[in-house]
Write a structure and sequence with these properties.
The protein has 329 residues and is of the alpha/beta class. It has eleven helices and seven strands. The chain has helices spanning 11-27, 36-63, 73-82, 85-114, 119-139, 141-155, 176-183, 230-242, 260-273, 290-300, 315-326; strands spanning 165-169, 189-192, 199-207, 210-216, 245-250, 277-282, 305-306. The protein has a seven-stranded mixed sheet with strand order 2-3-4-1-5-6-7, sandwiched between helices. The longest helix has 30 residues, at 85-114. The two termini are 28 Å apart. It binds guanosine-5'-diphosphate. The site of guanosine-5'-diphosphate has 15 residues, from helix 7. Residues 170, 172-178, 283-284, 286-287, 308-310 line the site of guanosine-5'-diphosphate.
C-alpha cells in the first residue's frame, strides 16, 4: 500500500474557484415574489454557502490521506527521510484548523446576512466573509505548498507489497540480479527511491499459495557502510523495515573483482545491522571446485548454500530455507 495525499490545489486557485462557483450558483438562483431585501439576503447567503462548501470539500479531501501511523514501517521511514513526519503532521493540523475556522465563519456570516436590515449590509457581510476566508487560506498557504510537494514526492515512492520480503545483498557482480531473476517468475519491476538515484528491483514468486517478494537494491547493500553518504545510510535503514530475511550472495571465484575478505566484511556488517536472518549463499558454483567451497564454509563458520544462479542450479534449496524462516514453527 503506497501512501498517498490527494491532489491539492494552490491556495489562490482554490479561492478563485470557490468565488467563481459562488457567483455562478447564486446567479442561477431564481427567487420571485419577495421583497428585494429578502432576495439579496438569499443570494448573498447562497454565495457564503457555496464558498464554504467548495473550500471545505477540497480541504477535507486532503485530510483523507492515510494516517502515518497506519502505514507499513518501511514507508514511515521513507516519509520521514523524504518529507519529514513532524512537518507533515503540522501541515495537516493547519488544514484541519482552517476547516474549523471557515465552518464557524460560515455560521456567523449566514446569520448576519439573514438578519441584515439593508441590501448594502447583506452584501457587505458577504464580502467580509470572503475576505476573512481568503485570509485564512493565505495563512495556511505555506502548509498547502508543503503538502503539494509532499504529495508529489509520495507519488515517486517505490511501490512495494506488504508481504514476506527477501532482500538480496552482496557486492557488485556477484550475481544478485541473476539470482533474483532465477527465483522470481515475472520480469523484475524497477522502482526508484525519491531521494537518491538508487533503484530498487522487485520480483515475486509463489510457493504453497503464498506470495513472496524479492528485492534487489543495486548500489545499496553492496559496499562497506563507511563509504556511504548519509542519505544512502538512511535508505539502508528503511530497508531494515522491509526485509524479513536477507540472502547474502558471495562470489568466491572472485571474478566479481572483490576478494573473499572484502565480501566477508560487508556480510558481517549487514548481519549485525539487520536484525533478521541472513542466509549466506555462494554463487557461481558452475565455475568453482568443491574444495574451495568447503574451505570457505569452514572460514565463515556456518552453513552456507551453494548455487549457480546462471544455470538455475541449487536455487530451490535456498527457496526452501527462506520458506522455513517465513513459517513460524
Ligand atoms: P550483480 O551486480 O550482483 O547483480 O551481478 P549480476 O547478476 O549482474 O551478474 C554479474 C555477472 O556474473 C554477469 O556476467 C553474470 O552473467 C555472472 N553470473 C551471475 N551468476 C552466475 C553464475 O551462477 N555462474 C556464472 N558463471 N556466472 C554468473
Amino acid at each position: 500500500m503506497l501512501p498517498r495525499i490527494p491532489e491539492i490545489t494552490r491556495t489562490n486557485d482554490l479561492i478563485d474557484l470557490a468565488f467563481r462557483r459562488a457567483a455562478k450558483e447564486s446567479s442561477l438562483l431564481t427567487i420571485r415574489g419577495v421583497p428585494r431585501l429578502i432576495r439579496t439576503r438569499k443570494k448573498e447567503e447562497k454565495k457564503v454557502k457555496v464558498v464554504a462548501r467548495v473550500i471545505k470539500k477540497h480541504l477535507n479531501k486532503v485530510l483523507k490521506a492515510p494516517r502515518i501511523e497506519e502505514l507499513p514501517s518501511f514507508y514511515q521511514e521513507l516519509v520521514d527521510i523524504a518529507i519529514g513526519i513532524e512537518k507533515l503532521k503540522k501541515s495537516f493540523g493547519a488544514v484541519k484548523w482552517a476547516v474549523k475556522k471557515i465552518e464557524s465563519l460560515e455560521k456567523h456570516y449566514k446569520y448576519k446576512i439573514r438578519t441584515s436590515q439593508t441590501e448594502v449590509d447583506a452584501s457587505k457581510y458577504r464580502r467580509e466573509f470572503y475576505g476573512r476566508t481568503a485570509s485564512i487560506l493565505r495563512d495556511i498557504s505555506e502548509e498547502i505548498d508543503f503538502l503539494r510537494d509532499a504529495s508529489r514526492k509520495l507519488r515517486s515512492f517505490p511501490v512495494v507489497k506488504d508481504i514476506f520480503t527477501i532482500v538480496i545483498a552482496g557486492m557488485p557482480n556477484v550475481g544478485k540480479s541473476t539470482f533474483l531473476k532465477a527465483i522470481t517468475t515475472s520480469k523484475p519491476k524497477i522502482e526508484s527511491y525519491p531521494f537518491t538515484t538508487k533503484r530498487i528491483l522487485l520480483g515475486y514468486f509463489k510457493r504453497r499459495y503464498r506470495e513472496y517478494q524479492v528485492v534487489d537494491t543495486p548500489g545499496l547493500l553492496d559496499r562497506p557502510l563507511e563509504k556511504r553518504n548519509p542519505i544512502e545510510k538512511q535508505a539502508i535503514l528503511a530497508l531494515k523495515h522491509l526485509a524479513n530475511v536477507i540472502i547474502f550472495i558471495f562470489d568466491i571465484s572472485e571474478t566479481c573483482g572483490f576478494t573473499r575478505e572484502e565480501q566477508l566484511k560487508v556480510f558481517k556488517e549487514i548481519s549485525s545491522l539487520f536484525k533478521v536472518k541472513v542466509i549466506p549463499v555462494v554463487n557461481k558454483a558452475d565455475i568453482l571446485d568443491k574444495e574451495k567451497i568447503k574451505e570457505f564454509e569452514e572460514k565463515i563458520g556456518e552453513k552456507i548454500f551453494v548455487c549457480s544462479a546462471l544455470k538455475k542450479e541449487g536455487v530451490e534449496n535456498i527457496i526452501e530455507e527462506v520458506i522455513r524462516s517465513a513459517s513460524p514453527v
